[in-house]
Design a protein that fits this description.
six-stranded mixed β-sheet, single chain, 24% strand, 7 helices, alpha+beta, 21% helix, globular
Length: 260
């Protein structure tokens, strides 16, 4: 089966492309690797050679020169100017975000975030020369990672948050983000995003508010409102199946030739 993607482009931003991977349809006879798993870190008894092939196919089908990734640890660290990853091996550097600029000759380097319910968050500056990709699990939301990353991104490249756009990819939706230990895992500071009757958090709304508080205008915050748990046939979902794979979300700078 070939890999499936949902393309996305930021309105008014030239030279930046995004893609959100969909898993191949699930069945009892199909392994995560056969569904398109691209993570070598998922802890699965999977066919590693097929996972590597998926990773290479992802790069080639999107027309990328390389892919950058990190070992995601649910923290608040962003790696600036990462190098292309050898797709045959697991990443070594720990972080939950990456950022690059066109000045560093990183065109067609895809910044890859791996998820199976967590939020992939892709961010671009309106000049089309600066991009960032974030892995935002619920622990990242709780640690205020989106605003921390936006501030660091702007400081590093001398940007204004008001000139950024962000898109959240498929992830755990408001009706499925159940937390039975809300008081100890979250606390009163996040009560406005918790529905006690259903015991569910609206992580999508929380991320939007965190981005807006960081200075990104509401009208520049986009979301693919596709719940991975509800659509577990089309996406990997850890809440639906702890033995699942991971799908990729990528953002990259196009070449100046393709822009013109």
């Amino acid at each position: 089966m070939g890999l499936r993607f949902i393309p996305f482009r930021f309105p008014g931003v030239d030279g930046v492309a995004c893609a959100f991977q969909m898993a191949c349809p699930a069945s009892s006879e199909v392994t995560p690797a056969q569904r398109g798993n691209i993570s070598l870190e998922a802890g699965l008894k999977d066919e590693e050679t097929l996972v590597v092939a998926n990773r290479q196919a992802l790069r080639d089908e999107l027309g990328l020169r390389g892919v950058a990734e990190v070992r995601q640890v649910h923290g608040v660290t962003t790696l600036f100017e990462p190098e292309p990853q050898n797709l045959c091996f697991r990443p070594e550097k720990e972080a939950d975000g990456m950022a690059i600029s066109r000045d560093s000759a990183r065109e067609l380097l895809g910044l890859m975030i791996k998820t199976a319910d967590c939020q992939p968050l892709l961010i671009a500056h309106r000049d089309g020369n600066h991009i960032m990709a974030l892995h935002v699990g619920w622990k990242g939301n709780r640690q205020e990672y989106p605003p921390i990353a936006v501030e660091e991104f702007c400081d590093r490249y001398h940007l204004k948050a008001s000139d950024l756009s962000a898109v959240r990819g498929p992830s755990l939706g408001p009706g499925c983000a159940e937390f039975i230990r809300f008081d100890t895992e979250w606390g009163d500071a996040f009560a406005a995003f918790f529905e006690r009757q259903s015991r569910c958090m609206d992580l999508w709304r929380l991320t939007r508010e965190q981005l807006n508080r960081a200075g990104i205008p509401q009208e520049h915050i986009y979301g693919l409102d596709l719940c991975t748990r509800s659509l577990a046939r089309d996406f990997f979902s850890y809440r639906a199946d702890h033995g699942c794979g991971r799908q990729a979300s990528l953002i990259w700078l196009e070449t100046k030739t393709s822009i013109n």
